[in-house]
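A.,

Following up on our hallway conversation. Structure tokens first:
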């Protein structure tokens, strides 16, 4: 950066103006995204872009803390983010970034490490946070801290139980067998960075990469929503008076509360979306409403009544057919007497005709009643008054059938020729 650019930035700050249009205590917009897997996050703070990944594995605990798991943070800088970053080994700024984030999360006891213990003194869970710097637009500490915190909140470790002969064998269950368990996070430590620029040490919050190039020193304070100072670090050669530090802490407390609310909303939406992905949804039954869209309530009720009557009609026909078959089999069996001496042909024809008529009468007793019910439902009340009643229709049908039956039974007898016998003189 040239001297003219540095002077322009310092002169603009004297008028409470910054080169990106913000005020001295305006924070850039924070955008939080999540990956497909649990424990992955992506945070964008202005032009700064950081990704965080959380993984876990079973390891042996430290001797001085046999009942606690471990939490470690690793940073990775690429030349794509900033040409000044070295390839292969972490530079001074990379080491400093990892220590600031580690101090704010691990030393503040934000993560419950005792819940990571599986077998005291033998097996504990080791949580590893990998931070990848994709683009350096200034204030990497704040962006990396948010990415690490969000990744921890969305991470879920596999559930494990003890088995074997002595209950000392650790069995790790897959996510398909048992639901993974989230980490226990007591509070949300958020890092807020201030920069001191110029001879008068003008204070600005969330410095950009251009402002970091001209600043004389910076202060990073890590606070939670309760106002507790989890960590604080002053880097740079310029001294800062106590009143300025207290002012920075008050501003940082307000900004930390705002960022915490954004983190909670983002994590809550992620958990809701994750729960919906696990629900197995079945397609709803297709209902054809086009047919009943133009029908009234009365028409719909009539259609439903017709369907119900059709089902009942089928049941009645089946039961009546069975009774008719049983009845006819009994009559046929009784008429065929193997021990009878002789059978009159005329009487046999008359009995068969009467039995056929009786069968037709029984079927008519069932079918006309159902048809009459359908006719009465389809007609309007005025038409129903003009039509004959159900009982009258049935009685008229029965009388007609009975007359036909008697005529059929009598006709064969009239057709028989009378036998004439010659007059014999019996004397």
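Then the amino acids I'd put at each of the 427 positions:
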């Amino acid at each position: 950066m040239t001297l003219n650019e540095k002077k322009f930035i310092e002169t603009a700050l004297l008028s409470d103006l910054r080169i990106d249009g913000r005020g001295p205590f305006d924070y850039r917009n924070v955008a939080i995204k999540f990956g497909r897997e649990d424990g992955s996050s992506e945070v964008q703070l202005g032009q700064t872009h950081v990704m965080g990944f959380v993984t876990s594995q079973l390891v042996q605990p430290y001797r001085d803390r046999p009942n606690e798991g471990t939490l470690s943070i690793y940073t990775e800088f690429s030349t794509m983010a900033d040409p000044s970053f070295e390839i292969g080994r972490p530079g001074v700024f990379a080491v400093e970034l990892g220590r600031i984030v580690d101090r704010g999360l691990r030393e503040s006891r934000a993560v419950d490490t005792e819940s990571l213990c599986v077998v005291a003194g033998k097996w504990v869970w080791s949580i590893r946070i990998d931070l990848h710097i994709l683009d350096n637009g200034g204030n990497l500490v704040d962006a990396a801290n948010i990415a690490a915190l969000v990744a921890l909140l969305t991470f879920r470790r596999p559930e494990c139980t003890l088995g074997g002969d002595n209950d000392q064998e650790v069995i790790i269950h897959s996510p398909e067998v048992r639901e993974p368990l989230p980490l226990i996070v007591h509070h949300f430590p958020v890092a807020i960075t201030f920069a001191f620029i110029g001879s008068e040490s003008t204070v600005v919050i969330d410095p950009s990469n251009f402002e970091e190039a001209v600043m004389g020193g910076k202060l990073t304070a890590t606070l939670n929503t309760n106002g507790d100072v989890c960590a604080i670090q002053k880097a740079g050669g310029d001294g800062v008076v106590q009143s300025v530090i207290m002012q920075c802490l008050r501003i940082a407390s307000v900004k930390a509360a705002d960022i915490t609310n954004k983190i909670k909303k983002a994590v809550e939406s992620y958990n809701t979306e994750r729960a919906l992905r696990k629900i197995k949804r079945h397609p709803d039954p297709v209902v054809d409403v086009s047919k009943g869209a133009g029908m009234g309530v009365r028409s719909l009720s009539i259609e439903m009544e017709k369907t119900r009557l059709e089902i009942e009609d089928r049941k009645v026909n089946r039961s009546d057919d069975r009774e008719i078959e049983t009845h006819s089999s009994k009559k046929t069996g009784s008429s065929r007497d193997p021990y009878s001496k002789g059978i009159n042909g005329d009487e046999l024809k008359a009995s068969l005709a009467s039995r056929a008529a009786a069968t037709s009468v029984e079927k008519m007793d069932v079918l006309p009643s159902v048809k009459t019910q359908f006719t009465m439902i389809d007609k309007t009340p005025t038409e129903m008054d003009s039509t004959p009643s159900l009982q009258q229709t049935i009685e008229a049908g029965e009388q007609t059938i009975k007359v036909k039956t008697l005529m059929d039974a009598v006709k064969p007898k009239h057709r028989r020729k009378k036998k004439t016998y010659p007059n014999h003189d019996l004397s």
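The radius of gyration is 48 Å. Curious whether your intuition agrees with the design.

B.
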